[in-house]
Amino acid sequence: MKNKLSNASRLLLVIAAAGLVFVLFSPIWRIELDAPQYPEGLALTIHANGLQGNVDIINGLNHYIGMKTLHNEDFIEFKLLPYCIVFFAAAFAFVAIINKRRWLNILFGLFVVFGIIAMVDFWKWEYNYGHNLNPNAAIIVPGMAYQPPLIGFKQLLNFGAYSIPDIGGWLFIAAGVIALVCVFIERRKILVKKKGMLPLNYGIILLTLLSASSCNPSPQALVIGKDNCHLCKMTISDPKYGAEVLTKKGKAYKFDDVHCVLSFLHSKEIDDGQVKDIYVADFAGNHSLVNVNESFFLQSSEIHAPMNGNVIGFTNKDSMKNIAAQLNGTIINWEQLNK
Questions:
Q1: From the CA atom positions of the chain, what is the Rg in Å?
Q2: Which residues pair with 165 in a beta bridge?
């Protein structure tokens, strides 16, 4: 009995097996492309047996910049991946049935190795398609590569590319997390017997691990002298006045002035529901980007920001009060500014 799995582990393994079966019928990964000429966006979804979505349109765009066109028959992965998924679904169920801790450890190790190999292969696929360009393409930008991000957001010319797991991908990740939780459960069970340790709340562990595996977009630093303001297209030249809007997908819209941020938000170029966070530069200190909900604002006609804006942000209220006295400014909050 000492090498047997707990009932909780066996149940979790069966759930994971069922989820992996569902992966066969779900998109595993998706790459979205946004550009002014495609306001509705383009999507490429990767399934176990091929590509779906706006493949023909994307192939047409790729042709102009010298990228190879995408065809399912060019990828041996689409012939192997369904079998790999079936194998792991059966393996999870097998370990639950055979009820041996040793097989659980082997399964977890194999699953981790497969995940690493799959991500490396995906990165190499993106690299080859983004770098091996036709030298006779209609559009050539010296030094430019078009490799999409492995995960997250990346700007490619006028296209914003966003890459993230889809339903099947999240199910695959969840299966790995479940296997890890089962390993913890069984390891903990041994320690409890040996040392009398109290059992853990494994539901909390599972939720914590699942939360840790999710993406959490963070702001991108403004590159002074290189980045352009999304609204006015001027080069961002002064870090004291910069700002940024970060979407839930991780796309960063950069601005040279708080005035440009407000105009952008009021233009409804993106829906309010897409906005994750808004940041402004700290006028004092090192001019780092700070969430507007943690900032203090000063408005004055004597402030001359790049686009004639009259608002600056601070993280320190005392610093703001000192400058307010010098500029005869009015202290204001973000809600008042964004009316």
A1: 26
A2: 29
* Strand-pair category, 159-165 with 243-247: unpaired
Q: Is this prediction's pTM over 0.70?
A: no
Q: Does residue 285 surpass a pLDDT of 80?
A: no
Residue 307's pLDDT is what?
Answer: 81
Cα distances from 19 to residues 14, 171, 175, 285, 299, in angstroms, run 9, 6, 7, 50, 54
In the DSSP assignment, the letter for residue 45 is E
Closest by CA to 282, choosing from 266, 264, 298, 302, is: 298
d(CA 165, CA 28): 6
The string of DSSP letters for 276-320 reads EEEEEEBSSTT--EEEGGG-EEEE-TT---TTS--EEEES-HHHH
Q: Which two tokens stand for residue 26?
A: 């779900």
* 250: Cβ contacts below 8 Å, ≥ 6 apart: 152, 153, 162, 215, 217
Structure tokens at 124: 């190499």
| More confident position, 193 or 311 | 311
Residue type, 268: K
In 3D space, the residue among 68, 33, 32, 75 whose CA is nearest the CA of residue 51 turns out to be 75
Please state the rounded mean pLDDT for residues 16-41.
Answer: 89
Query: What backbone phi and psi angles, to 5 degrees, belong to 161?
Result: -105, 130
Half-sphere exposure of 241 toward its Cβ, with a 13 Å CA cutoff?
A: 23
- Are 84 and 114 within 8 A, CB to CB? yes
- Measured CA to CA, the distance from residue 169 to residue 244 in angstroms comes to 30
Q: How far is CA 131 from CA 33, 71, 269, 300, in A?
A: 18, 18, 31, 49
Residue type, 220: Q
Answer yes or no: is pLDDT of 2 > 80. Answer: no
Q: What does the H/E/C string look like for 203-249?
A: HHHHHHHHHHHCCCCCCCCCCCCCCECCCCCCECCCCCCCEEEEECC
Find the distance separating the first CA and the last CA of the chain, reported in whole Å: 67
